[in-house]
Amino acid sequence: MAWIYLLVASVFEVVFALGTNATNGFTELVPSIVTIVAATGGIFFLSLALKTLDVGVGYTVWTGIGATGTVVLGTLIFGESMNVWKAVAFVLIIGGILGLKLSDKLTTAA
């Protein structure tokens, strides 16, 4: 269940980051409310995940998914630039996340 909480927290993290971009310095009401709710939801679900997961693993996965999701959606929604080096970096981040998830399973099984 901790990994599900972490995925939900990561979705909130992406919404938070994208929402922050849309707030125009917290001068736009609806994006500001969405951003605050997303930040609260992200931290809440992260705290639930960290009841079981090591903080180093949970936080790293949370920020990794948040960063990767933000870049992908920022490219699609806001037309931000994407190049080969960014794509390689995101593949490495995803590989690190998968490695942490696998290491958690291997530690539990041992």
From TrEMBL:
One of its GO terms (cellular component) is plasma membrane. Signal peptide: none annotated. The keyword Transmembrane helix applies. It holds the Pfam family Multi_Drug_Res. It is found in: Cell membrane. It comes from the Bacteria. GO terms for molecular function: transmembrane transporter activity. Keywords: Cell membrane, Membrane, Transmembrane, Transmembrane helix, Transport. The chain crosses the membrane at residues 33-50, 57-78, 84-102. InterPro entries: EmrE-like (IPR037185), Small_drug/metabolite_transptr (IPR000390), Small_multidrug_res (IPR045324). Its main location: membrane. It is a multi-pass membrane protein. SUPFAM superfamilies: Multidrug resistance efflux transporter EmrE. Belongs to the drug/metabolite transporter (DMT) superfamily. Small multidrug resistance (SMR) (TC 2.A.7.1) family. This is Quaternary ammonium compound-resistance protein SugE. It comes from Nonomuraea endophytica.
